[in-house]
Amino acid sequence: MHATDALKEADRLMTVCNSCRYCEGLCAVFPAMEMRRAFTSGDLNYLANLCHACGGCYTDCQFSPPHEFNVNVPRTLATVRAQSYAHYAWPGALAVLFRRNGLFVTLATAASVALFIFAFMGAGGAHFGEAVQGTGAFYRIMPHELIAWLFGGVFTFGLVALALSLRHFWRDIGDAAESPLAPRPLWQAIKDAGSLRYLDGGGVGCYNKDEKPDDNRRFYHHLTFYGFMLCFAATSVGALYHFLFEWEAPYPWWDLPVVLGTLGGLGLVVGPIGLLRAKRQRDPALLSEAGAGMDKAFTVMLLLTAVSGLLLLVLRATPAMNALLAIHLGIVFALFLSLPYGRFVHGLYRFAALVRYAQERARDA
């Protein structure tokens, strides 16, 4: 009755786990599982996005390989989770394109937009060997109106695509009539997501191939998430400066957008590098190849966005500023375009799953 082999395998494993229940204290997946006796595809996608892939259940399970039951919950749910990104994505054609060629398509998009901006700058008389300094320096080589329309358009498209995908996911994982904005479950989900409550293997951390748990993944996820939020805050403050007070970038080092962007950029350098390193240290038995390309693409694009942005900040008064601006804008455009089809959307689905879990716990109580 399920559309994919991964969903069929997840159904089998949840049936086995529901009979055992040894791992019910490790995370939210198993208590949510115990509220069900049968599993629809929506239920399995819900459980997959509740899973934080800590590996605790695999290590603790008496039925994990080489047992004949072959219970490997982290790997199976990782496959289901990756497939859910494409299943709920809008429009579906772009989801297929990014899933099959994630890193290549994203980097090609960044390079194409950067070349377009290079050409536009050249046609506008920009001299790439000369430094452009002072208030409004960026907009003397790239008009603010063009930046606003180009990036406002792709950002709006990303928001619409994310909203429609999230709506589809929410309707499939439970009672569509139940609002995701009920105050108490929403607040509980915010606390659980903000602290990465379930990324701890039941309290000891995530398991690696040396079978020694640690908390590194949580630390690097925190740096990445809060670094992203600081960069978003810097962009928002910069927009207020421009449209409300008519203060044009670049701003001084001590001004709020620069401080927020610098701190966020540092988080988006250390965090993604740590996540890529942690990925290599994980037990291969816990990992799924499904969606690996888009996961890597998103992490790499965050890192490139941060590195190019910090270089632009440091070298903005030098002749390198023109080229760095084009490269940075190209990377940001590609990042925005890819948001609804890769790792970023998992954050939204996981948050929605945490809201649903909080609602179910309150109803059960």
Short description:
The protein has 15 helices and no strands. The chain has 365 residues and is an all-alpha fold.
Describe the structure.
The protein is mainly α. It is 68% helix and 0% strand. It has helices spanning 5-20, 29-34, 41-50, 56-60, 73-88, 92-100, 102-123, 137-141, 144-172, 183-195, 216-245, 256-281, 292-314, 321-338, 343-364. Helix 7 (102-123) packs across helix 14 (321-338) and helix 13 runs antiparallel to helix 14. The radius of gyration is 22 Å and the shape is elongated.
Entry keywords:
15 helices; 365 residues; mainly alpha; elongated
Radius of gyration, taken over Cα atoms and rounded to an integer in Å:
22 Å
- Tell me the overall shape: elongated
Fraction of residues in helix: 55-70%
Roughly what is the average pLDDT, rounded to an integer?
A: 89
> Beta fraction of the residues?
under 5%
What is the H/E string?
Answer: HHHHHHHHHHHHHHH
Structure class: mainly alpha
What's the β-strand tally?
0
What is the straight-line distance between the termini? Answer: 31 Å
Provide the low-confidence segments as ranges.
Answer: none
Major sheet characteristics: none
- Annotation field: number of helices: 15
Helix-strand layout with pairing:
Elements: H1 5-20, H2 29-34, H3 41-50, H4 56-60, H5 73-88, H6 92-100, H7 102-123, H8 137-141, H9 144-172, H10 183-195, H11 216-245, H12 256-281, H13 292-314, H14 321-338, H15 343-364
Helix pairs in contact: 1-5, 3-5, 3-15, 5-6, 6-7, 7-13, 7-14, 9-14, 9-15, 10-15, 11-12, 12-13, 13-14
